[in-house]
Amino acid sequence: MNDICEKAVLYAAGELPADEKAAFETHLNTCASCRAEVALLNKTQEALNPPAAPGALVDNLFAKTTRKKAPFWAVWKTALAGTAVLGVGIVFLLAALHPDRAAFDTTEVVAYMSEHLDEDYQNFSSDLELFEEDF
Length: 135
Known about the structure:
By secondary structure, the chain is mainly α. It has seven helices and no strands. The radius of gyration is 48 Å and the shape is rod-shaped.
């Protein structure tokens, strides 16, 4: 066996440079031993490669095994709806339990303030004087 016969493995693997590949192909025309070795290497490589699965089968398996990410609203809409209903319920409950803030008529408040303005001012003035005396 000569040096060129030792390149059969590299030739079968497609790893020979272009110039050496051309020289080996010329050698294959004259060397039956190298042709048999390259044929054996090619058959071995084909046997090692698993057959490809049909495209329809691959697509079907992929569709069954992959999960599609649900959109934000699909995941959270029940929780958000429940929270909204709970919030509205709390607002109504607090409104029912809280005393009415509009129990006084605004005209009554203004009339009371007008009647007692001088009295309130005098009380404030005396309180302020007492406060200033302490300091």
